[in-house]
Amino acid sequence: MDNVCTYKSQKIKDIRRMVQVARGEEPADLVLKNGEVFNVFTGEFLNRDIAIVDGYVAGVAEGYHGIEEIDLEGRYVTPGFIDTHIHIESSMLTPAEFVKVAIPNGTTTIIADPHEIANVSGADGIKYMLDATENVPLNVFFVLPSCVPSTPMENSGAVLLADDLEPFLKHPRVLGLGEVMNFSGVLDLDPVVHEKLEMAQDYKIDGHAPGLKGKDIMAYAAAGISSDHECATAEMARERLRAGMQVLIREGTACKNLKALIQVIDNDTAPFCSFAVDDKLPADLIKNDYINGMVRKSIEGGVSVATALQIATIFAARNYGLYDIGAIAPNYRADIIVFDNLQEWEPTMVFKDGKLAMDVKKNEGKILLPVEKVSAESVKNSMYLGEVTVDRLRLPIKGDMAYVIGLIPYQIKTNKFKLPITKKDGCAVSDPTKDILKLAVWERHHATGNVGVGLVKGFGLKEGAMASTVAHDSHNLIVIGANDEDMVKAVQELSKMGGGMVVVKDGKVLVSLELPIAGLMTDAPAEDIAQKQAELRATCHSLGVHKYFAPFLTLAFQSLAVIPQIRLTDQGLVDVTLNDIIDIEADEAEEEFLRQNHI
User: Fold this and answer.
1) How many whole angstroms separate alpha carbon 120 and alpha carbon 366?
2) What is the dihedral of CA 563, 568, 569, 570, to 10 degrees?
3) Helix/strand/coil for 8
4) Phi-psi region of 566 (alpha: psi -120 to 50; beta: other; left: phi over 0)
5) Structure confidence by residue, pLDDT tens digits, 342-369
6) Per-residue pLDDT tens for 452-476?
7) What pTM, to 2 d.p., does this model score?
8) What domains are defined for the chain?
9) How far apart are the C-alpha atoms of 376 and 133, rounded to whole Å?
10) Around Cβ 230, how many Cβ atoms within 10 Å?
C-alpha cells in the first residue's frame, strides 16, 4: 500500500445511467449550461455544459439537457476549493457553524486535524468532531492528532497513544496521522512517537517541522512524514520538496506565509503544493478570505490563474489521495463554484454534490442546504481548576535578573531575553513602564493546582488583565496582566463561564466571550463571534496592547512549547531549543547580550 490513504467513496453510483447521460441519451438531474468551465488537467477555460447525475459529474460537453437546467450566462466555473490543513476549533465555531462560512467562500473540502479538542477531551473530542461532521454539506476529512500532549513539559486534558488512535483509522473519513510536532521525538527515536508512525505508515502522515534542514529534514521524511505547513521561506519549502515532501502553503489569521512561498511555485513544483490556513478566525472567513483569498493573492503575486486553481483543487486532492474530488470531469463529485469574474474571486454560486448550496441572489449569499447539529454535551464542562488565589501568582526571585519571553511583532516565535526585573517583597512583579508583564498558565483539566508563572516583554498592556482557555496546544488557562488582582479576577471569571476569553480592569469585566464547548468553541453564528472578537481586540488595544498584535492570538501562542525560542506551560518556563524546562532566575546579564537584543 502506498503512503497516501485508504479513502474510498461511500456513494454507490448508477454507472449505466452515468454512461447514458454522458452520451446525451438520457437527461441529467441537473445541467449547468453555458459556463466557462476550468479544466484542471489542461489548465484552460472552455465554454461547456456540465451534466450532473446523483451528485457526480457525468459529462462536460456542449448540448446536454436535464430535468433541471441553470444558464450560467458565460460565468466562470471551477471545482470546489480544498483546504489541506485546518483546526476547526481554532475558528471557535462548531463544525455546523464553520460549514456555514466555508461553503459561501467556495471551500467544499477540508482536511481537519482535531488536535485542539483532543488535547482537552481526548478520544471523546475526536468522536465529537467526527459525529458533528457526518451529515453536513462539506467534505470533512480528518488526520488524527499525533501529539496529545504536544510535549511532556505540560499537562493536557488527555494522553493519546498509538493504541488509542488506531481504532479511528478504520473510519472512512480518516486519512492518516496529523502534524507530527514532536520532531525531536522523531529524530531521537522516541518510542511513543515511533509507535504512532509505525501505526500510520500505510496512511498519510502530516508534518510540522519549523527550522529542520539538511540531514534532519531527510530523516524526518524518512520516517514517512510527507508534508509540512511550517515553511516560512522559499528555501525551507525547496528543502522539503527536495526531500519528497509536499508543501502546504499557509495563510491563516496568525501565520501568513503565502507571499514568501509563492516564489517557489513553478511548473515542476506546483503539483506538490497545496493551500492551507491552519487557523482562521470568523472575521476573516466572513470577508471572503478563505482558500478563495489565497487564490486571489497568489495570482496577484504572479502565479498564473491556471496554476493557482490547480493548487487549490486537483493538486491538493491528489496529495491526499482523494480520487473523486478536485475536478469538473466525469466521475468526480459535483462540487462546483461559479464566479462573475477572475479578479475578486467571490463566489456567486456554489454547488455541493450537485445541489445549489449558495447563491448570492438567494438568502443574501448564505448557505441554502440544511446543516445538522449534534449534541456537544460530551465535550462541555472542561474547567477543573485548582485553587485560584493571588498567592498562586507569586514569583520569588533571589537576584535582579530573569529570563523573559520576548515578543516579536507580527510573528509567533519569541526571543529569550535575560533582563533586570522589578521586584516587590522578594518577588518579580509586572512593570508596565518597562513593558514587562506577568504571565501565568493554569492547569485546567485535572485540578492539579499547577500554575506556571513567567514574564513577557513587548506586549504593551498598561493596565488590567486578559485571560483565555484557548492556549496552544494543551489549552490550559493562560492569563497576562499588569497586576495580580485583575489576573485572578480574570481566571475566576473564566471558571464561571466554563471557558472562553475575558478582559478585566480594576476588578470589573470589560468584555468576554463564552466558549463552553471544551473551552474552545461556541455554537453562536460566525457573525456574532466576529463582532465579539472585534470588541475584545479593541478593548485590549485601548488598554495598551500594541496594535501590531492580535491580542488573544498572541496570548494563545505563548504556551506553545514546540515553537522556538521560549514559552510558558503549567510546568514552568520552557526553552524550546534546549527542549527542557529552565529556571526563570538568570545570572547577571552580559553587556553583549543586551547589545545584541537592543535592550
Assistant:
1) 32
2) 180
3) coil
4) beta
5) 999 999 999 999 999 999 998 888 999 9
6) 999 999 999 999 999 999 999 899 9
7) 0.94
8) 15-74 (2.30.40.10), 80-325 (3.20.20.140), 390-596 (no CATH)
9) 12
10) 23
